[in-house]
From TrEMBL:
Gene: tatC
Chain segments annotated as transmembrane: 36-54, 109-128, 149-168, 203-223, 235-251, 257-277
Subunit structure: Forms a complex with TatA.
Matching InterPro entries: TatC
Homology family: Belongs to the TatC family.
Matching Pfam families: TatC
Name of the protein this chain belongs to: Sec-independent protein translocase protein TatC
Physiological role: Part of the twin-arginine translocation (Tat) system that transports large folded proteins containing a characteristic twin-arginine motif in their signal peptide across membranes.
Keywords assigned by UniProt, alphabetized: Cell membrane, Membrane, Protein transport, Translocation, Transmembrane, Transmembrane helix, Transport
HAMAP family: TatC (MF_00902)
Subcellular location, record wording: Cell membrane; Membrane
Membrane topology: Multi-pass membrane protein
Segments forming a coiled coil: none
Amino acid sequence: MSERRKDLVESIKDRGKTLEAEMSFFDHLEVLRWHLIRSAVAIVLFTVLAFSYYDLIFDSVIMGPKKASFWTYRMMCDLTERFNLGADFCIKDLNFKIINTEMAGQFTLQLNSSLLIGIILGFPYMLFEIWRFVKPGLTEKESSSASGFVFYATLLFVMGLLFGYYIITPLSINFLANYNISEIIENTITIDSYLSTVGTLSLGAGVTFQLPIIIFILSKLGIMTPAFMRSSRRYATVLILIIAAIVTPTPDILTMLTVSFPLFLLYEFSIVVSARVERNRKKKELEFYSAR
């Protein structure tokens, strides 16, 4: 009888632990939900702000790479004059038209591009909300070592965004929009296609520049090591050159190297980050075994 009573008590305790764990899980989901809601509200506010000042954003930012007076094209012409790089490197005209083919196309364009700007401007705050959600689950040392997460992730995102907008996007637009296989075909690009190209290349570069942050997290988890990254350098080099060739499908090697060089630096910097994480982990292990 006493054994049955003990089993019943243990069963009740186990059930209580299970309920406590389930409540903890749902509590975490509730906290995560509010972090996501605040991030969404911030993006909506930035979207409304972009919608309100859309004329300036459309003329100066979205249509910037379409104009021959764009900063990138002017710098390419200056480099051509100084180093005699050839007339093809200096871009003075982008011979293509942008059209709208749908009844609500221009209104949809304003909504989509405003949302795109809202996501870009709200990205740092979204990172901050993610950090606030993750931080309570970290130890004091882990929290201290990752204290600059929001700053560095935002910095890398902005650097990648600028690189994508000022380097990858104009070079790609110039090549693709002016590429002709026959004189009877006139390049008339839909506004949706143009916006998609500008947004995808710019945001894609911003996300790609998060590589050191991803490597930092994977190294903390023990999934990635600097030795593996060094041994895979030749494969990474080939992959980066392929990506550069796809993103900027221009026939000259100079343009491809211009795009691929920052990616090489990013990969090497990621190796340094991974090596530092591994060095700190080994140091902690040595201190742990020395204290025993």
